[in-house]
DNA sequence: GCCGTTTTCGGCCCGACTGTTTTCAGTCG
C-alpha cells in the first residue's frame, strides 16, 4: 500500500497524520455521536448534578438567542466565549464560590451572576426571558449554511418565519426573493441548505477525514499540507482545510474533477464539497507558508487570541504575515515557528491551539512539553487469538519488536463476556504460561506482559477472583454490559472497581462507541478523584471507534495527577497503528511524557504496579 | 458583555468570496 508522508516542514514538526495509508473514501453519514443529542444539555431533573456542560449549554443558548434578536455581536461572542471557558474548565463550577467565576477569563459580573443562578436553579432569568421572546425553532436556522444572524432576524421579522419548515415554505413560494438584497440564487441556496440540514450530521471521524484528505492531496498538483481541525487532532471533523503551493488554476481544475459541488472559487482559495464534506484549499507561497498554516490550523478562538497578541505589540496578524501598524510594512514568514517567535511566544503545538490558556503560557514561555510519539515504549491494551483477536502471541511479540516497543500488554477478555470468547481463570493461567514461554524462547526485543481486560460486573465486582488478578503483570478493568445504569449507580460501580487492589487501569472509561453508543452516565469528576486517591490509571483508548477518554477529561485527569494509559485495543496487527491517535488525544489533553504510563521503562512500569 | 501600562468608555481579528449590488452587506473560516 502506498503511503503519504505529510511532514509539516514549515513548522519543523511531524504532522499528526503522518504515515497514513491510502484507502477508498466512502460516505459516512451521521458519524458524530452528538447528532441525535440535544444541542443544549437539559437540566430536567432535580436529582441531576448541574455539570459544567449544562452551565455551558445555557450560556451558549443565550448567545444564540441574543444573536437572532440582532444583539451586539460582541455581546454574543462574550456568551459564546464564556460557554467554552466553562465547558473546558478543569473543576466543577458547582463547587466554586461566586467570586471565583469573575476571576475566569472572559467572565465578568453579569455572566458570573448568570452562572451562579444556573448552578442554583438550572436556568437563569436571561435564558427564561429570551426563550419567552423567541420562537423555539428560530435558533436552529443559524445552523443553515449561508444563513447568519442578520438573515435569521430578517426572515423572522419580515416574513414571519419561525422555524425550518416555515422557511422552506417561504422559499418554495418564492417569498424570499421578494426581500431587498435577496434574489433567485439566494432562494435556491436556502432550499439546498434546508435539505442538507435535514440529513443527519455530516461530522466524521478523524480516520474518515484522513482518507478524504488523502484523496484531495493526491489530486493537487504540488506540495500540500492538511491544516484545520484535522491537524489539531480533533476526534470528529466537520470540514477539511488544506494549504498548497500548487498553481491555483491547475489545482482548481483537479479539484473540480473529484468534487460533487464547487462552493466558491477565487484567486486565493477554492472551496468544494465531496461526500457532503466541505474542503477548503488555500493557495500559498513558500515565503508565506508559516502565517498561512498558522491561520488555517488554529481554532477560531486561538486565532482571535493570537491577533490580539499581535495588536498589543503594535502589529496586525493575518494569513500573509505580520504588518507593522505604524509603518504598514508586512513581514512574511516561511515557518510557523518564525511567526510565534516574532510574536514573542514559543511554538504552540497544533493539538493545543484551542484557546484554552495555551496562548498566555506560550507568551510566558511556560507552555508544558507534551508527549511525543517516539516516547511511547509500548501498547497497554491488546487482544490475542486467545479471546476475540486475530494475533498469535508470537505475532504480537514480533509486531511489537518491529515497532520498537519494549513491551505490550496482552489483555484478553475475561469469561463473563461470552461473545468475546473470554478467558476463565484456568484458560488465563494457560495463556500466561504461554506468554512467559514466548518471552523466554522467541528472542523478541518486545516483552509480552501477562494481563487481562477483566469485566466490571453490574455491582462493581470483577469477573475474576483476586487470586487470579494478583498474578497478572497488569490488570485493565472495563465495563462491557449494563450500559443503561443510572449515573450514580454506574459511578459507584466504576469507583468500586478502581478501589480493588489488583486493578491498575480502567479501560475505555465512558464506554462510548462513536455513532453507535453514547457514553454511559458517569460522574467523571468523581471517577477521576477516585483514580487520583487510589493511584490508578485511566485509559486513553486509541481505537478510532472509541477515542475514550475525551480530551476534556484527559486534561482534568492530568491536572489531578492521574496517570493515563494509552491502549489501542488492537484485535489485528494493523490496529497497533492507532497508537498515534492515542498520542494525539494525550497531547490535546496537555499530557507530558510523565503523565503517560506507556512512556515508562518496563522496570519502572512494574515498579509502579507495585 | 468584557476589558484596561491607550483603564470606566470605546473598541472588540481579519480577509475571501458571493450575490445583489453600483459600492457593499453578509457569511464563512
Give a summary of the structure in a few sentences.
With 610 residues, the protein is an alpha/beta fold.
Query: What oligomeric state do these chains adopt?
Result: single chain
Class by alpha and beta content: alpha/beta
> How is the main sheet built?
7 strands, parallel
Number of strands: 19
Number of domains: 5
Mass-distribution shape:
globular
Count, helices: 23
Report the CATH C-level class of the largest domain.
Answer: Alpha Beta
Low-confidence stretches: 1-39, 41-49
CATH superfamily of the largest domain: Metal-dependent hydrolases
CATH topology of the largest domain: TIM Barrel
Estimated share of beta-strand residues: 5-15%
**What's the CATH architecture name of the largest domain?**
Alpha-Beta Barrel
Structural topology:
Elements: E1 7-8, E2 13-14, H1 52-68, H2 73-87, H3 98-103, H4 109-121, H5 125-132, H6 149-159, H7 164-172, H8 184-198, E3 204-205, H9 206-219, E4 224-226, H10 228-232, E5 236-237, E6 239-244, H11 248-258, E7 261-265, E8 269-274, E9 277-283, H12 289-297, H13 300-312, E10 315-318, E11 321-324, E12 330-331, H14 336-342, H15 358-364, E13 378-379, H16 393-402, E14 407-410, H17 425-441, E15 447-455, H18 466-469, E16 474-478, H19 487-498, E17 505-506, H20 524-534, E18 537-541, H21 551-559, E19 564-567, H22 579-588, H23 602-609
Helix pairs in contact: 1-2, 1-5, 7-8, 12-14, 19-20
The chain binds one DNA strand of 29 nucleotides through helix 2, helix 4, helix 6, helix 8 and strand 7.
Amino acid at each position: 500500500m502506498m503511503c503519504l508522508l505529510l511532514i509539516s516542514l514549515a513548522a519543523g514538526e511531524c504532522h499528526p497524520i503522518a504515515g497514513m495509508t491510502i484507502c477508498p473514501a466512502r460516505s459516512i453519514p451521521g458519524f458524530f455521536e452528538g447528532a441525535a443529542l440535544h444541542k443544549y444539555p437539559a437540566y430536567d431533573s432535580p436529582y441531576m448534578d448541574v455539570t459544567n456542560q449544562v452551565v455551558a449549554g445555557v450560556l451558549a443558548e443565550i448567545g444564540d438567542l441574543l444573536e437572532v434578536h440582532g444583539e451586539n455581536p460582541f455581546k454574543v461572542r462574550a456568551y459564546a466565549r464564556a460557554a467554552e471557558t466553562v465547558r473546558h474548565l478543569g473543576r466543577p463550577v458547582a463547587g466554586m464560590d461566586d467570586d471565583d467565576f469573575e476571576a475566569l477569563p472572559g467572565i465578568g459580573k453579569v455572566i458570573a451572576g448568570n452562572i451562579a443562578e444556573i448552578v442554583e436553579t438550572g436556568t437563569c432569568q436571561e435564558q427564561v426571558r429570551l426563550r419567552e421572546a423567541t420562537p423555539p425553532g428560530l435558533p436552529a436556522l443559524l445552523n443553515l449554511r449561508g444563513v447568519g444572524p442578520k438573515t435569521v432576524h430578517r426572515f423572522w421579522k419580515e416574513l414571519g418565519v419561525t422555524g425550518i419548515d416555515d422557511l422552506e415554505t417561504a422559499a418554495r413560494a418564492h417569498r424570499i426573493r421578494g426581500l431587498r438584497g435577496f434574489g433567485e440564487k439566494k432562494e435556491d441556496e436556502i432550499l439546498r441548505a434546508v435539505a442538507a440540514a435535514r440529513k443527519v450530521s455530516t461530522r466524521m471521524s478523524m480516520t474518515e477525514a484522513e482518507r478524504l484528505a488523502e484523496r484531495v492531496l493526491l489530486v493537487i498538483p504540488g506540495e500540500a499540507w492538511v491544516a484545520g481541525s484535522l491537524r489539531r487532532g480533533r476526534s470528529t471533523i466537520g470540514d477539511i482545510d488544506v494549504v498548497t503551493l500548487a498553481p491555483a488554476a491547475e489545482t482548481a481544475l483537479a479539484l473540480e474533477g473529484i468534487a460533487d459541488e464547487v462552493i466558491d472559487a477565487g484567486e486565493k482559495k477554492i472551496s468544494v464539497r465531496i461526500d457532503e464534506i466541505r474542503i477548503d484549499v488555500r493557495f500559498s507561497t513558500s515565503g508565506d507558508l508559516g502565517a498561512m498554516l498558522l491561520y488555517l490550523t488554529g481554532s477560531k478562538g486561538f486565532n482571535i487570541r493570537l491577533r490580539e497578541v499581535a495588536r498589543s505589540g503594535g502589529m496586525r496578524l493575518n494569513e500573509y504575515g505580520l504588518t507593522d501598524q505604524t509603518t504598514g510594512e508586512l513581514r512574511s514568514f516561511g515557518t510557523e515557528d518564525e511567526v510565534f517567535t516574532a510574536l514573542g511566544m514559543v511554538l504552540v503545538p497544533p493539538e493545543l491551539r484551542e484557546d484554552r490558556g495555551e496562548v498566555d503560557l506560550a507568551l510566558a514561555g511556560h507552555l508544558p512539553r507534551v508527549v511525543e510519539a517516539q516516547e511511547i515504549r509500548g501498547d497497554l491494551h491488546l487482544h490475542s487469538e486467545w479471546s476475540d483477536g486475530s494475533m498469535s502471541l508470537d505475532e504480537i511479540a514480533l509486531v511489537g519488536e518491529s515497532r520498537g516497543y519494549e513491551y505490550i500488554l496482552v489483555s484478553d477478555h475475561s469469561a463473563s463476556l461470552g461473545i468475546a470468547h473470554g478467558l476463565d481463570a484456568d484458560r488465563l493461567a494457560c495463556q500466561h504460561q504461554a506468554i512467559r514461554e514466548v518471552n523466554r524462547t522467541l528472542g523478541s526485543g518486545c516483552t509480552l506482559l501477562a494481563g487481562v481486560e477483566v469485566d466490571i460486573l453490574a455491582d462493581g465486582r470483577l469477573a475474576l477472583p483476586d487470586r487470579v488478578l494478583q498474578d497478572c503483570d497488569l490488570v485493565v478493568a472495563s465495563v462491557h454490559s449494563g450500559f443503561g445504569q443510572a449515573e450514580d449507580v454506574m459511578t459507584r460501580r466504576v469507583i468500586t472497581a478502581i478501589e480493588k487492589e489488583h486493578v491498575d487501569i480502567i479501560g475505555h472509561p465512558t464506554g462510548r462507541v462513536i455513532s453507535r453508543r453514547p457514553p454511559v452516565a458517569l460522574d467523571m469528576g468523581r471517577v477521576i478523584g477516585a483514580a487520583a486517591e487510589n493511584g490508578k490509571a485511566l485509559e486513553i483508548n486509541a481505537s478510532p471507534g472509541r477515542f475514550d477518554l475525551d480530551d476534556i477529561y484527559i486534561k482534568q485527569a492530568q491536572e489531578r495527577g492521574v496517570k493515563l494509559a494509552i491502549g489501542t485495543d488492537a484485535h489485528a496487527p494493523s490496529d497497533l497503528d492507532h497508537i498515534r491517535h492515542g498520542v494525539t488525544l494525550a497531547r490535546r489533553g496537555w499530557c507530558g511524557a510523565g503523565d503517560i504510563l506507556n512512556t515508562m521503562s518496563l522496570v519502572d512500569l512494574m515498579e509502579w504496579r507495585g
